[in-house]
Amino acid sequence: MQALRGLAWLLALQSAGELLARGLQLPLPGPVIGMILLLIALRWQAVQEPVSVAANFLLSHLSLLFVPVGVGVMTHLSLVTRYGFEMLAVVVLSTLVGLLVTVLTLHGLQRRPPAANQDTSGGDPHA
């Protein structure tokens, strides 16, 4: 029963994200907004426990989620043989760009001093 509650939370938050994205015409996709809502909702124990059970269930059956992809590749094998090199190049290039952006972002964040310890008033903090 916990897994069903967790799945219901996941679907409800994704649906809320879709509604917000479409209703407010936001530039982010609905599932991304749903993930942000999930991140916020995971602060509550009533959401944490069922979502954890549902996530463990989904992760234990993750290999089943690759079956439709395999069927799609087999169905469109002629496209893969025709454009396979181009698709491989795009996948490799986009992966490298994603890694580069991640490294540069992490590098930039590590250079910044912690904001919590800075006193911008210039005065004595105990005064």
Question: Key features?
Answer:
mainly alpha
Q: Give average pLDDT, whole number.
A: 87
Task: Report on the biggest sheet.
Answer: none
Question: Percent range for helical residues?
Answer: over 70%
What is the CA-CA span between the terminal residues? 56 Å
Write down the overall geometry: extended
User: Given the helix and strand composition, which structural class is it?
Assistant: mainly alpha
How would you spell out the order of helices and strands?
HHHHH
As residue ranges, the low-confidence spans are none
Number of helical elements: 5
- Percent range for β-strand residues: under 5%
- Count the beta strands: 0
Rg is 22 Å
Outline of the structure:
The protein is mainly α and 127 residues long.
Q: What does this 3D model show about the protein?
A:
The protein has 127 residues and is mainly alpha-helical. The chain contains 5 helices and no strands. The longest helix has 35 residues, at 77-111. It starts with a helix and ends in a 16-residue tail after the last helix. The mean pLDDT is 87.
List the helices and strands and how they pair.
Layout: H1 2-23, H2 30-41, H3 45-60, H4 67-75, H5 77-111
